[in-house]
Design goal:
The complex is a heterodimer of chains A (114) and B (118). Chain A is an all-beta fold and 114 residues long. Chain A is built from no helices and eleven strands. Chain A is globular, with a radius of gyration of 13 Å. Chain B is mainly β and 118 residues long. Chain B has no helices and twelve strands. In chain B, strand 5 and strand 6 form a beta hairpin. Classes of the chains: A mainly beta (114), B mainly beta (118). The interface between A and B is medium-sized, with 28 and 29 residues.
């Protein structure tokens, strides 16, 4: 099973809403990532969890709050977002820190903030 | 700081022909990994091929091969016998392998949009 599952696939939320994006993998991977991708742009790294601890935060605004409840799950809690936060949010996982390991991506959540 | 450069915003290729997508990178690390991903319009990122900085042979995976020229810091993707289903965005990416650190960054180039014509 080389699958990373993201839910929901699509999300529309108001600027005052609170919502969460979920990501799950059962490959035993110990590194998990959140990326944000605007249309026709490359994915931009937001957060990295390594062995369930936050290891990288790329200066992401606090209205995005990541959580890693266990080694298989990764959440992204959203609160008070802005319309410019509308994007494709991609979750990925990889075996660990080694530069040799590829990251497997989920299908993404298309987020629209209205 | 690492940097990935893809200079071809878009490419056309005839079905059944080969195409080369360019990628150059910049890093001061000796240990790093280079990756190519395909992103169809549906959005998922599909891993295609990997090349390690210490690998002496060019990587191959089916119709995909990576032309790795370490001295030039280039890692071009070659797709042989193009198919209509190959039409997608292609991203080159790099991960630096700093031992013992928490640097798990996988950084992407700007991508090349490939269109395969019948």
């Amino acid at each position: 099973d080389t699958e990373v599952t993201q839910t929901p696939k699509h999300l529309v939320m108001g600027m005052t809403n609170k919502k969460s994006l979920k990501c799950e993998q059962h490959m035993g991977h110990r590194a998990m990532y959140w990326y944000k991708q605007k249309a026709k742009k490359p994915p931009e790294l937001m957060f990295v969890y390594s062995y369930e601890k936050l290891s990288i935060n790329e200066s992401v605004p606090s209205r995005f709050s990541p959580e890693c409840p266990n080694s298989s799950l990764l959440n992204l809690h959203l609160h008070a977002l802005q319309p410019e936060d509308s994007a494709l949010y991609l979750c990925a996982s990889s075996q660990g820190r080694d530069s040799r390991t590829e990251a497997f991506f989920g299908q993404g959540t298309r987020l629209t903030v209205v | 700081a690492q940097k990935i450069t893809q200079t071809q915003p878009g490419m056309f290729v005839q079905e059944k022909e080969a195409v080369t997508l360019d990628c150059t990178y910049d890093t001061s690390d000796q240990s790093y990994g280079l990756f190519w991903y395909k992103q169809p319009s549906s959005g998922e990122m599909i891993f295609l091929i990997y090349q390690g900085s210490y690998d002496e042979q060019n990587a191959t995976e089916g119709r995909y091969s990576l032309n790795f020229q370490k001295a030039r810091k280039s890692a071009n993707l070659v797709i042989s016998a193009s198919q209509l289903g190959d039409s997608a965005m292609y991203f080159c990416a790099m991960r630096e392998g700093r031992g013992g650190g928490a640097t798990n960054k996988l950084i992407f180039g700007t991508g090349t949009l490939l269109a395969v014509q019948p």
